[in-house]
Amino acid sequence: MIEATGLTKHYGKTVAVDDLSFTVEPGRVTGFLGPNGAGKSTTMRMVLGLDTPTRGRVTVNGRDYRSLKQPLRVVGALLDAKWVHPNRSAHAHLHWLAKSNGIPLKRVDEVLDLVGLTQVAKRRAGSYSLGMSQRLGIAGTLLGDPDVLLFDEPVNGLDPEGILWIRQFMHRLADEGKTVFVSSHLLSEMAQTAQDLIVIGRGRLIAQTSTAQFIKEATEDAVRIRSPHLDRLRELLGDKARLTDSATGDGALVVHGVEAASIGELAAANGITLHELSPQLGSLEEAFMQLTKESVEYHAAE
Ligand SMILES: Nc1ncnc2c1ncn2[C@@H]1O[C@H](COP(=O)(O)OP(=O)(O)OP(=O)(O)O)[C@@H](O)[C@H]1O
């Protein structure tokens, strides 16, 4: 578990983190979201004792990071996957990391296997793709089998396969009971990865909630329908709903104010064939932008 209380960081006149309090629970993937410059990296650095708070406190499993005797056994963190020496192999890198932290060397092969790098473990890390570098970085975080894992923008620049792999891997870690804290400025990605969200803007807490709740509050009920009997459906939905034609001009109907399940039941009860019945999350990104608008450091127009 990670607990921040009144966490604050000033760099000269810049307030990077401003009186931030939150809890990151074990057994879940928690997304740490905010626009560029919101203070995510600064917060993560304070969790890891790499930066000293101006005020407030953050603890990992109830302890200050700097007071941990064997930190790699408590917290694993991936802040920048490219910090590996390019001429070192994955195996040599992990070997060195394990040795300098008093971790049994047999653990190196175990973590290489966990992230699927066994076959290429002897190759120079400098020749790795970004996806492979991320896997190596993750292997490093797992060396001490820590309870708490921190990842700063782990999917940045990855292809869809790499993104999917990271997403599934994080879920696996959370299922094992670990605390998984992942920062991103991509809401749509986090909506698929994280069960809980901590949203910040200009260093301040905007929301701490489950992802499902965030989406529910952020999105208007809208359902896209396509059917060969659209006119009949329009009549049946009548005053219950607000109906608009799809802006994409594909003949779909967009229904506001009635849940997809109710529309499906209504259609079934009246023998109406549906070719599409899809709840729309399109406004999620918009809602996030709205929520964090005030707190975006540099607007595009500036
Ligand atoms: N070492 C530093 N010295 C001075 N200012 C800093 C330092 N580190 C961060 N800042 C400032 O603190 C604010 C928060 O930066 P931070 O990197 O924590 O944000 P972020 O949410 O991680 O952003 P991004 O998504 O762009 O990585 C920014 O205004 C940044 O310019």
Structure description:
There is one protein chain. With 302 residues, the chain is of the alpha/beta class. Strand 11 and strand 12 form a beta hairpin. Helix 2 crosses helix 3 and helix 3 crosses helix 4. The longest helix is centred in the middle third of the chain and has 16 residues. It is globular, with a radius of gyration of 23 Å. The two termini are 39 Å apart.
Strand order of the largest sheet: 5-6-7-3-8-9
Total domain units: 2
Which overall shape is indicated by the principal axes computed on the Cα atoms?
Answer: globular
CATH topology of the largest domain: the name is Rossmann fold
Superfamily at the CATH H level of the largest domain? P-loop containing nucleotide triphosphate hydrolases
Strand content: 25-35%
Largest sheet: 6 strands, mixed
| Helical coverage, percent range | 25-40%
Number of strands: 13
Which SSEs are present, and which pair or pack?
Elements lengths: L1 E10 L2 E11 L3 E6 L6 H8 L7 E6 L14 E4 L11 H11 L5 H9 L15 H13 L5 E5 L7 H16 L3 E6 L2 H7 L2 E6 L2 E7 H8 L3 E5 L3 H8 L4 E4 L7 E4 L3 H10 L6 E4 L3 H10 L10
Parallel strand pairs: 3-7, 3-8, 5-6, 6-7
Antiparallel strand pairs: 1-2, 1-4, 8-9, 10-12, 10-13, 11-12
Helix pairs in contact: 2-3, 3-4
Protein name: ABC-2 type transport system ATP-binding protein
Family: Belongs to the ABC transporter superfamily.
Keywords: ATP-binding, Nucleotide-binding, Transport
